[in-house]
Write a structure and sequence with these properties.
17% strand; binds adenosine-5'-diphosphate; 5-stranded mixed β-sheet; disordered N terminus; alpha+beta
Length: 465
């Protein structure tokens, strides 16, 4: 490596450094003596400065000072009258001393320059190693998708070598059905310098197989030293396959469990009727409890099935036109029947007709009201209100419960996410909000929450009118 040659004096033995310094001064003196007749001795110092600089650069400060001292002696002896004598006038002595001081300055400067260069080379090498040994593929891409740099890990991940990559554009490695989606994400940040967008997509491996990669695309076009879009990506094929298998499993298991549970529920209802007829109060209470637990399991299974439907993109919305307030009153009534602890207070905007999937919107409101009751055990009211805001109807569900901390609020709409501190005390799968969010997004609406820990929460969602 070049830097090894640059800083070789650290490896040269100390004696050899002084010998080299002496030899260089001797060579310079011989050259100057040879050229003395044609060019005279009017510039006795110049060549020696070059020697001092060279020695300082490659053999260190001490050797440089030694060469400066030897050069001063040689100048005094050979080039300052009287020649071939160390006798010297005070004026000339001052000149020689000034020469030696300049040598010290040159050695000092050279030393600083060498340290700065070493630091730059080391930093460069460090970053080069980081990029080359990183398991994440790094590419520099122009706005038209042409690849201008690809790290060695890109070859490890995709199988394509530098020649394949640097003469092509990124679109040619994608699956045709995903090109539009990836391009959309890529160009969504084209006018926003510094922004990053993430996308999960497939890439055709050089050997023909298909791999899943997760790419982070960052717009550094306005960064003068980079001047391109940076794509970092890693191979997530194993994770995606594992997730798919998990989803398939959940889908099959939930589907298979649904049938026996439906029969079980029917049998419990028959049993409950019989117990009532026989006036067997204790057994009626027990069967009632069994029925409630079955309802909970059925609700969980429906949630799991919904998640698999959402993941595979087969959750269809059966939209119809209906009156929202009517539906809200039905949901409120049925939830109110299941609780004695809370009163649901409504404050509804004038009646509006919306085009939506009635069952799914019912599911969202049910989920928000059940959560509001579940997560406010010390309160006795929950509020449901609606407001017309522009072209949207917004539904608010407010509770005075445990609230959500700032650090967790962004994650509660994630799949299977549950706030850590409540896991033990409140049961649930962490799916209700995820499903609700997707249902609302599927209707072109938005969903969010205002909350503060220990200070209650207000969940809201909007639907286009
Ligand atoms: P589940 O209630 O089954 O855990 P959800 O998806 O409905 O799943 O809710 C996800 C998480 O969000 C809950 O585990 C809880 O921590 C938090 N959460 C939801 N609603 C409320 C609420 N009204 N007040 C406080 N925390 C809530």
């Amino acid at each position: 490596m070049k830097s090894g040659a640059l800083f070789q004096y650290t490896r040269t033995s100390p004696y050899l450094r002084y010998i080299i310094a002496f030899a260089l001064v001797a060579v310079a003196t011989i050259i100057k003596l040879t050229l003395l007749a044609p060019i005279g001795s009017s510039t006795p110092y110049l060549l020696y400065f070059a020697v001092v600089l060279f020695v300082a650069r490659y053999y260190g400060n001490a050797a440089a000072l030694c060469s400066g001292f030897l050069a001063a002696l040689a100048i005094t002896y050979f080039f300052i009258p009287p020649l071939l004598s160390f006798r010297i006038s005070s004026n000339n002595l001052l000149q020689v001393i000034a020469f030696f001081c300049e040598c010290v300055f040159i050695a000092w400067l050279s030393n600083h320059l060498e340290r700065a260069t070493r630091q730059i080379v080391e930093n460069q090498k460090r970053f080069q190693i980081l990029i080359e040994k990183s398991s994440v593929g790094i590419m520099m891409v122009q706005l038209d998708g042409r690849i201008i740099y690809s790290s060695p890990s890109v070859t490890d991940i995709t199988g394509y070598n530098n020649m394949d990559l640097e003469s092509s554009d990124i679109w040619s490695f994608l699956m045709s059905e995903e090109i539009t989606d990836v391009k959309e994400k890529f160009y969504s940040i084209a006018s926003c310098p510094g922004r990053t967008v993430k996308v999960l997509h497939r890439v055709r491996h050089r050997k023909g197989s298909i791999i899943w990669v997760e790419s982070a695309i960052t717009n550094l076009i306005e960064e003068p030293l980079v001047n391109s879009v940076i794509i970092n990506f890693s191979d997530v094929t194993e994770r995606v396959i594992r997730d798919q298998q998990m989803e398939d499993f959940i889908g099959i298991a939930s589907h298979e469990l649904k049938t026996p549970l439906t029969s079980l529920k029917a049998y419990t209802q028959v049993l409950e009727m019989r117990m009532k007829k026989e006036n067997n109060a204790t057994s009626t209470i027990l069967v009632n409890k069994i029925d409630k637990q079955i309802n909970r399991v059925v609700a969980m299974i429906f949630d799991l099935l919904d998640v698999t439907k959402l993941q595979s993109g087969i959750m269809h919305l059966n939209k119809e036109r209906f009156e929202l307030n009517e539906m809200i009153c039905d949901v409120v009534e049925s939830i109110q029947n299941t609780t004695d602890s809370h009163q649901i207070i409504t404050d509804l905007a004038p009646a509006v007709l919306i085009d939506a999937d009635k069952n799914r919107i019912n599911q969202v409101i049910t989920n928000l009201l059940s959560n509001a009751i579940k997560y406010s055990p010390d309160a006795d009211t929950v509020n449901l209100s609606t407001k017309i805001e522009g072209n949207f109807i917004v539904v608010y569900v407010k509770d005075r419960g445990i609230g959500i901390s700032k650090s967790e609020i962004d994650k509660i709409f994630d799949r299977f996410y549950r706030v850590d501190r409540i896991r033990e005390s409140y049961q649930g799968l962490g799916l209700g909000l995820y499903i609700s969010y997707q249902i609302i997004a599927g209707h072109g609406g938005k969903m969010g929450v205002y909350s503060e820990e220990s200070n209650g929460s207000t969940f809201w969602f909007s639907l286009p009118l």
